[in-house]
Please model this.
Amino acid sequence: MKLVKTDVAIIGAGTAGMVAYSSASKRTESVILIEGGPYGTTCARVGCMPSKLLVAAAEAAHAVKEAPGFGVFPGGEARIDGRKVMERVKSERDRFVGFVLDSIERMPPERRLMGHARFLDDNTLDVGGHTRVEAKSVVIATGSSPSILPMFGGLGDRLIVNDDVFEWDDLPSSVVIFGAGVIGLELGQALHRLGVRTAILSKNGLVGPISHPEIKKYAAETFAEEFYMDTDAEVLDIIRKESGVEVRYVGLDGGERAEEFEYLLAATGRTPNVKDLGLENTSLELDEKGVPVFDRYTMRCGESPVFMAGDADNEAPVLHEAADEGRIAGENAALYPEVKAGRRKTPLNIVFTDPEIAIVGPGYNELKNTDGLCFVTGSVSFENQGRSRVMRKNKGILHVYAEYGTGIFLGAEMFGLRAEHIGHLLAWAAEKRMTVPEMLAMPYYHPVIEEAVRTALSSANEKLHKGRALSPESVECGPGI
Model:
């Protein structure tokens, strides 16, 4: 068995692992990146990018369907070519993956090691049975995998996860999706708009990352107007059939239904890839899910030389958070035993549905359960918002949260048009710890969606006793502003 000694060993070559490698390499040349599977990040292969390619195709199809509402009638019969849709999805996906592979190839060969890594102790790894790595510090950046519930057993090739969707050569006739989280919502709506008969069944009222009950209810009802979705579904049975999967469940009308689908897509969460790392051979404290306990500001596991980063830590499974964690973990692993706290950015979560969803900051439930915090909520509906009505996309609600007394903007929850852009503006405001009056003093053009932000902030401002709210009868293009 080959022996390799290094300052830093990084397990996993996804986004977090690659950023950790780059960060550690700025402080030491003795860094090894270990990967047990194919190179290419979750984002590029089966996550952010291929899903947005499918969403983009769905938006194009939906625009054609909605055109008559503007008095525009596309000529001829609209047709969706599933093979062409998936051809573009896979072609562009492969292009994105290619960029990642190019960056891997630029790393010195002696710093890359292929094989599954297992801990022998805190500082020693067995890699694929062919190499023993002795490291002063280790970064776990092994990512996560789709979670498969026991109830899906026996479905064989009719059970799929989001990874499988992007290997299709053609669109199926029907799919039932279990789970109304980010993946379930994005893929479910996209497939529906591309002509796939789609149903989403979920539990506990889940609608993506939304926590405010009013917005959650509104969003669930809006989606249900477009395709079948039950966020508190009672599933009676799941049966493998010759040509698909039969699902028996209690319908929204209270009656029992039996419906057959070509595939069942499990979108019931993701599980950190830590099970087979040999963590039992380390000194690490594990939580109830078997994930090492770590400090989110240093990414260090207890007093050990081991650090966590990315989806493997089961905290914030989004790319920019994985990159931040990789940067902090890589730097501290290189500096070990000296460790310093890294700066974490304002939380930002976006769901690319239509309408979109954006959560800025901690979210309503977390704020509500924060001891000693008194906050107000400002709100606005998009149903009568000028630019939204012009575009016939006037569905949505925005809530903004501000600390009572100081007026500091804490965060927001939004279900509405262009939430991806408004979410960024609000995240920047939260990052700068702006107050609501300061945000109201910023320029607002007309007519833009951002005018709704001003209305919501004005609503919060009145509750903060720092100014009056806009009248419900105010007109954006008149003195009401």
The chain has three domains: 2-146+271-335, 150-268, 348-463. The mean pLDDT is 94.
